[in-house]
């Protein structure tokens, strides 16, 4: 009992936001330190992994002599469009399926079938349908992002306490108000959890689709670097992808802390 009380006191003093921020940065900083020390002392061979300072030099060369900024913006546009379409589709389908038995009968089964089929395996089919341009890439990322959004939002809707519905009937609250003030806020934690998975999934899809006939983007830069044996530029691309994911996940976490303050209040 004493240990449990002490844990609550420590958490209250530290504050949930501060504790998350510290934990979130420790891992990346430690990873960078291990990489730098291993390269400095020869533990990590340059043939295996380029040293951090050489990666910085390659980054500067790509920024000054090549269109690194244009490639980064092109990749962000693809990932952002795909993630936006996937989040919208996943949310709408989850709401329809979660609030209607007919909707669940029509939607949930096909979605579960799709979960068992890797989206990346469908790329040849998407190429036949949409060509090898931007549309195929955005559709692939959107479909990859849609699944975690749907699954977690749907679970959030199904996990809402039935007593809220009974209370709404007692107070004669309309269906629209009940959905707006009870159902959607109750599903928001599941949506944000799904969004975190969707961000990671969209970046995984981006890495793959940019290998297909891309004329711009970080993947295009890495493809050219592979052809010319520029391992330092390859690591630059990997670092950029990693930074994309790190910052995107941090943004979702920050949003989650801001919009779900009511949950911490209820938890005491």
UniProtKB/TrEMBL annotation:
- Where would I find the ABC transmembrane type-1 domain in this sequence? 68-252
List localization entries: Cell membrane
The record's listing under InterPro entries reads:
MetI-like, MetI-like_sf
CDD domains in alphabetical order: TM_PBP2
Query: Which Gene3D superfamilies does the record match to this protein?
Result: MetI-like (1.10.3720.10)
A Gene Ontology term for the protein's cellular component: plasma membrane
Give the UniProt record's GO annotations in the biological process aspect: transmembrane transport
> Membrane topology type, per the record?
Multi-pass membrane protein
> What is the superkingdom listed in this entry's lineage?
Bacteria
Q: Which Pfam families match?
A: BPD_transp_1
Is DNA damage one of the keywords UniProt gives this record? no
Indicate the secretion signal residues: none
The residue ranges crossing the membrane are 22-48, 68-96, 116-132, 138-157, 178-199, 233-254
Sorted keywords for this record are: Cell membrane, Membrane, Transmembrane, Transmembrane helix, Transport
Q: Which SUPFAM superfamilies match?
A: MetI-like
Which PANTHER family does the entry mention?
A: ALIPHATIC SULFONATES TRANSPORT PERMEASE PROTEIN SSUC-RELATED, ALKANE SULFONATE ABC TRANSPORTER-RELATED, MEMBRANE SUBUNIT
Q: Which family does it belong to?
A: Belongs to the binding-protein-dependent transport system permease family.
Q: What is this protein called?
A: ABC transporter permease
Q: Which gene encodes it?
A: ssuC_3
